[in-house]
Structures are given as C-alpha cells and as structure tokens.
C-alpha cells in the first residue's frame, strides 16, 4: 500500500522560503507521477506542481517562477521548494502519487504552511 508522509511546513514571513518534503513508501517510484496540491480553508484542493517519473514538471500559474518541484529517486522523496512566499500561499499542502498506467491516487496527510504579512 502506498504511503506518503509530508513534512517541512511551518510559519514563515512573506518573501521567505520553505521546502516541503514527501517521503513515499510502498511503491516503485519510477511508476508514479508525483504532485503537490494545496487547500486553503473554504477552498478546493488545487494542483500546485507536478513532476513525472521522467522528470518533466508543470506548475500552477500562481506559483510559476517561485516554486520548484524536484525528486530524489534514491530516497523515494519529492520536494517542493517555495520561494518569495505570499500570504495567499497559506494552505495545507498535500503530496500526491498517481500511478502511470491507471487512475489510482494516493495522498499524504498534509502539512500546514502559513505565510504571515
């Protein structure tokens, strides 16, 4: 069974940086596309950034140029480097794993990111 554990959230000031980590287990890392989503109170969960098994990336327009997704295959870990943080980035951030050959999705428990002004 796929398990995803996020870490690295916290409180930061606007303009600051933070790096989130997602440790994956119970999967063959190369068979999954990975993504970071976020959900603010009262809002839908939305995609922030994604990285394919081959390393291609895509980002939500709201974070382009500020966030960077990466992964370490040896550690089965995906990262989200967040720079120039804004109060609007405040949300619970979730790690997602999507099996390449189907519609299976796995989610982590989420980690809170709070950006103060």
Commentary on this structure:
- The strands form 2 sheets. Strands 2, 4, 5, 6, 9, 10 and 11 form a 7-stranded mixed beta sheet that branches.
- The chain has strands spanning 3-7, 10-13, 18-25, 32-39, 46-51, 57-59, 67-72, 77-82, 91-99, 105-107, 111-116.
- With 117 residues, it is mainly β.
- The radius of gyration is 13 Å and the shape is globular.
- 0% of the residues lie in helices and 55% in strands.
Strand percent estimate: over 45%
Estimated helix fraction: under 10%
What value does the Rg take, in angstroms? 13 Å
Give the integer mean of the pLDDT values: 96
Task: Say how many strands there are.
Answer: 11
Largest sheet: 7 strands, mixed
Class inferred from helices and paired strands:
mainly beta
Order of helices and strands: EEEEEEEEEEE
What is the overall silhouette?
Answer: globular
Low-confidence stretches: none
H/I helix tally: 0
The rounded distance between the terminal residues' Cα atoms is: 40 Å
């Amino acid at each position: 069974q796929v398990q995803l554990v996020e870490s690295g959230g916290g409180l930061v000031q606007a303009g600051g940086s933070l790096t989130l980590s997602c440790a994956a287990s119970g999967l063959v890392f190369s068979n999954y596309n990975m993504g970071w989503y976020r959900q603010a109170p009262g809002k839908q969960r939305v995609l922030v950034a994604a990285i394919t098994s081959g390393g291609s990336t895509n980002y939500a327009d709201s974070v382009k140029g500020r966030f960077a997704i990466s992964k370490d295959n040896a550690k089965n870990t995906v990262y989200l480097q967040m720079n120039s943080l804004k109060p609007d980035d405040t949300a619970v951030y979730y790690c997602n794993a999507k099996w390449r050959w189907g519609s299976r999705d796995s989610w982590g428990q989420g980690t809170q990111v709070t950006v103060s002004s």
